[in-house]
Amino acid sequence: MISSDTESLIQRAARDLSRAKYAIALTGAGISTESGIPDFRGPSGVWTRNPEAERKAYQSYERFRADPAQYWEERLRGPSLLGNLENMQPNPGHAALAELETLGVLQWVITQNIDNLHRRAGNQNLLEYHGNAFRLRCADCNARYEPQDYDLKRLLAEGRLPPRCRQCGGPVKSDVVHFGEPIPEDVARQSLDEAGRCDLMLICGTSAVVYPFAYLPRLARERHARKGEAVTIIEINADPTPLTEEEISDYIIQGRTGEILPKIVEAIR
């Protein structure tokens, strides 16, 4: 049951979105946990339950740089930490953001999530800040590839790993951005541009503590303040975040994104 206070904030968010000239959304793990994908640091998170997996995650990029072939052998032979992502489905929160784009209300979604669910839900203007688990990327030139572009199991069997970029010949890795790996330049640059351009930012299901992603709301606030322009920053999160506490956001709607976002869409329509 949604309280009257929450309902009032939903109506406020719908009005703010309807009036915005250039609205974008930032999303994090909170929107995907509602599809059954575990987070990493929550009470039942992947790394909470398996600290050794976290230690290895922090070493992934170093291992790739030191020995790309070994990196690929471990990935192809080992289990996925997040389970079978192919079986996961977009939830009503994903669908609502895709509908906001279709309605012309939302211009871009910038997501921390690597699960491909925004793309499957229908978002076209999508920046995957930490990459996509279903794509590959050249470590040298950032060219992206689909999994079917390479027969990885055959390359493994024939001892011809790592796959090589068809544009520059560099080693190809998972598109996922590992710890210690720079955010791909094209995504980082456009994300900064969108944060500086928007007049409304909808923040959905992110704790806003992982940098540099967490800098984007702060950049939006700072850049608009320097220009003397207004920007509205709305949080939809289960709990307050540093953005709430530091008054970076204008207001927070506490609840599940899969419940709140569809109601915002309904109010707009």
Task: Summarize the structure in short.
The chain has twelve helices and nine strands.
Which SSEs are present, and which pair or pack?
Blueprint: H1 4-19, E1 23-27, H2 29-32, H3 46-49, H4 51-66, H5 68-77, H6 92-102, E2 106-111, H7 117-121, E3 126-128, E4 136-138, E5 144-145, H8 152-157, E6 172-174, H9 185-197, E7 200-204, H10 215-227, E8 232-237, H11 242-245, E9 251-254, H12 257-268
Parallel strand pairs: 1-2, 1-7, 2-3, 7-8, 8-9
Antiparallel strand pairs: 4-5, 4-6
Helix pairs in contact: 1-12, 4-5, 6-12, 9-10
Offer a few descriptive terms.
three-stranded antiparallel sheet, Rossmann fold, alpha/beta, 2 domains, six-stranded parallel sheet, SIR2/SIRT2 'Small Domain', elongated, single chain, 269 residues, 42% helix
CATH class of the largest domain: Alpha Beta
CATH superfamily of the largest domain: TPP-binding domain
Provide the CATH topology of the largest domain: Rossmann fold
Task: Give the tally of β-strands.
Answer: 9
Structural class, by secondary structure, is alpha/beta
What is the straight-line distance between the termini?
22 Å
* Main sheet record: 6 strands, parallel
Indicate the low-confidence ranges by residue numbers: none
* Known CATH architecture of the largest domain: 3-Layer(aba) Sandwich
Q: Can you give the mean pLDDT? A: 91
H and E order:
HEHHHHHEHEEEHEHEHEHEH
Counted up, domains total: 2
What's the number of helices?
12
Secondary structure: helix percent: 40-55%
Strand arrangement within the widest β-sheet reads 3-2-1-7-8-9
